[in-house]
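Summary for the steering committee. One of the milestones for this cycle was to obtain a three-dimensional model of the protein with NAP bound, which we needed before selecting residues for the alanine scan. The sequence and ligand used are listed below.
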Amino acid sequence: MVNVAIIGVGTVGQSVAKILEDNKTLISARAGKEINVVKGAVRDLSKKRNTTIALTDNIDEVLSDDSIDIVVELMGGVDEPFKVVKKALTNGKAVVTANKALLAYHRYDLQEIAGALPIGYEASVAGGIPIINALKVGLSANQIMSIKGIMNGTCNYMLTKMSQEGVSFDAILKEAQELGYAEADPTFDIGGFDAAHKLLILASIAYGIDAKPEDILIEGIENINGHDIEFAKEFGYSIKLLAIAKKSGNNIELRVHPVLIKESQMIAKIDGVMNGVSVIGDFVGETLYYGAGAGGDATASAVVSDIVEIVRAGQSSPMLGFKKPHESQILKLISTDEIESEYYLRMRVQDKSGVLATIAQICADNEISLETILQKTTDDKNIAMLLCATHLCKEKQIKQAISEIEALEALEDKVSMIRIEE
Ligand code: NAP
Ligand code: HSE
């Protein structure tokens, strides 16, 4: 018999307890042992919950209980869960966590502390999709050329509803929170940080890169509005928040931001709370993974898979997948300024002679080649909307051009920019 304690019995924690109860016979057969949830730790014992497990508000009591074999951390945050997981490991317990924020900062520390003790974290990236196992095990024969994913269910849900139903940003965020998709602090979702945490975890498995969120380009969906969505539709694009890792020679680029992506691409068709990840390996080619990226039950499915794997096999490989120092020693994370993309710019400008020519000249001065320029009328006859798409250029070039354009008197608003992903 294996005893499990759950630290944090909220949306995901309650679903974990439910799956282990509802599928007890099947799970015990697969794991080869009976698995029991013996305790749960929460902050507020008076809250009403949909579970029958014994609860305490004393985490230390759980961590020092010798009868507990596996500690499942589902409380969220960074510092507090780091202490909890460290203590659980020090006390000889295996750990399972869904906490990508914790791993974004402490995955290498935890790998070190754990030693031979297993740490499962399948639920930390893309909810119910077994992408960690795919990268760690299924694709271990390959150099990973790229990872591109819709990895935040809240953003994808919001962008889908904004595009399909014209719902306002604020109303749809509230709905995503009520459905249990959003983080405790939803700015993590809409600001792109949650997707970045997940990308960093995958980049560690794929490349051994020890980067932190502050080392990479992260932009959220806060500035996407109806005009962008309309433009995207008119030109056959969808707007998605993508997390992208690309290898080119010994360089790795890591970035999270909204993109315009052709509607015909598979990843553009992933709607609602669903997540999708495309991984290209040098021998396998492109592989695609699709499933629910948030929500209690889908996430708990991945948490329970880790528990079963630990009971069945113990730690079958090092936490982040590498037994020896490897190519990561020569791989270099390229700076944000050097990343190349095509860009879409939207500008509200005074509709008078010379404005378009000045903007085109600023682009030319920054060696940015324009692919398309379109002028649209607005409700105000003195104001025009300029939309343009560029050919490939570097972040530092487009940033410089935007700052010069924003300094023009004829500009009515800040420039809105979205990268175009082919
Ligand atoms: P949640 O509903 O807010 O639940 C968090 C639980 O942790 C609550 O039961 C809370 O207690 C407890 N808790 C927080 N701080 C605590 C402390 N200091 N001591 C004791 N208990 C504490 O969060 P969730 O949505 O289940 O998410 C849990 C984790 O899974 C997070 O790391 C999240 O990023 C990750 N995750 C969530 C999803 C999702 O779709 N929700 C998907 C993938 C990963 P009270 O109930 O008493 O407040
Ligand atoms: N808040 C996250 C999301 C939960 O919306 O995808 C899953 O990690």
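Key point for the committee: The chain has a mean pLDDT of 95.
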